Amino acid sequence: MPRTKVGKSRYVFLFMRILVVAVGIGWAVVWVSREQRWSNLAAIFVRMNLGIFGAALGIFVISQIIVGFRWWLLLRNQSVFIDFGTAVRLTFLGLFYNNFLPSSVGGDLLRAWYVTKHTAKRFQAFLSVFVDRIIGLSSTLIIAIFFYWFFLRGRTGALTFSGRSGYMKFFVEYRSVILWVVVVLASVLCVLLLQRSGRALLGKAWSYIRVRSVTAFEKLKDAIIIYCSKPAIILVVFVLTVFIQIMQITVFWLLGVNLGVATDIRYYYVFFTLTWALGTLPVSIGGVVVVEGLLAYFFIHFAGVEAEAALALALCQRMIWMIASLPGAAIHLIGAHLPGAPQGGKLGLGTQKDFFVDYDESIN
Questions:
Q1: Does 341 map to a domain?
Q2: Under DSSP, is residue 165 helix (H, G, I), strand (E, B) or coil?
Q3: Per residue in 253-296, pLDDT tens?
């Protein structure tokens, strides 16, 4: 596909993701505005223990350093010898891009781009980021399945609608909003289909999704072939990933209890991991709205938690992610992500444009 068509399709896809975030935030504001939920939510945050919140933030920052170490191991497995500090700096840089920049380029892709500046083995370095993400996602799903299968499956009320409402009540309560959303989306789709430019726009968006899917499949195939030759390092990285995620969820459980989400910790292990996995789907920016909405929904309807407390926990998780991302901004501003760092921020946030120009050549 020509570069100009790929670029246009990318921005169409980006617009759709931003639209999902905007609609989700608008829906949340309307929902919180009802039945004194604003005051209830504010009261929960007022009584929140800042020490526990700080501990959760600290654990998350430490876990990101361990993530950098995990990636560093994968790089060395492919004889890409960058120093540990560089791996950690690029990890925080990717975290910053994921959480703050409304871009069509994910943090992982930027991390992959910049690591190729530190080594001549560009393909191996680029592939390591993809493998790192696959291992993280696999461990997340395994944790969710393990805790559900061995601890929640078969329990009375386990993962059934133990909350105050079910599907039918939800649809009845919000039927007018749902109807308007469906009407608006259907109208937009009809308008696009009736116009030649609209049909071309939809075609470009579909082509972009198809090309990205094929590319991801090819990278997965290459990763399996390369890394299966050294399974020991994959096992070490996998165990390390499970440890990181268990540690993060445990501290979120402590924070949740303080906020009023006082339910079995095993629900946390299932709900958090499920939302993390679903949040990787490219339907919003950095999983915003998707992660928060699903996490609150699971706790409210499956564990019977008060709605405001569940929402407060979801918002606290997002705040922790964003605060922990701030070192990535500093790293980018001083140019600490570049070879020979620091270089005074020689590459600023506009580097994404250069990234698109040179991306195809960077992994050859």
A1: yes
A2: coil
A3: 999 999 999 888 999 999 999 999 888 887 888 888 999 999 99
